[in-house]
Every structure is written in C-alpha cells, then in structure tokens.
Amino acid sequence: MICALMAIVSFVLGISIGLTIRKHKTGHGYFKVVIMEEQPDLAKVNVRIPTDQDLESLHEIILTRE
Fold first, then answer.
1. Closest C-alpha to 33, from 18, 43, 22
2. 36 secondary structure, DSSP code
3. What is the model's pTM?
C-alpha cells in the first residue's frame, strides 16, 4: 500500500516538475497567413516573435494566429 502511494506521489511530482521546466523553456509568438494575389493557391506566412524573450535559451516557440 505504501509503495503504491509513493509511486503515485512520485508520478505527480515528476509531471509537475516537467511542466514547470517546459513552461520556462517555451516562448510565444504570432503568425499571419496571407494569400498571394498572383497565385491564389499559394500563401505566405508572416511570423512575429517578440524579442523581450531570451530566444537562445528557448526549446520551443508556440505560435498563435493573429
């Protein structure tokens, strides 16, 4: 019984530590899709990432549509 309880606590603690580290190693930015006028079957994607983040230490950047 004690062993199962310790396994559950360890699992929850490991997940919470992992999510906290991931939150600090993830940046945020924005993107916009623009359809090209001369070729309507193609599109350009414009990306904007604020420079107030330490971009070199980030592992991931989450982009949100503008």
1. 43
2. -
3. 0.64
